[in-house]
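Many introductory courses stop at the sequence. We go one step further.
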Amino acid sequence: MNTADTAEYRIAHLRDRLAGEDIAELGIRIEQRGVTVMLYGTVSSAACKDEILRIAREELAGLPVREDLVVVRATAPDHPEELA
């Protein structure tokens, strides 16, 4: 098994862990670009983002990982919407 095959296997295992563990995150896209693995998408909290990155570091140890995970803030508006 070569390095590319190993990376693909590890990425698949990362997807399984993100879906199956308590975090149950299915909305993160994970792609291999050359030797780098890219994670991107939106998450519900900073804690969720930290947990995803922790799991990714465990599964992808030794591979360069880049992330573009955006935390979505679901707070109530602080003012009424004005309709014209």
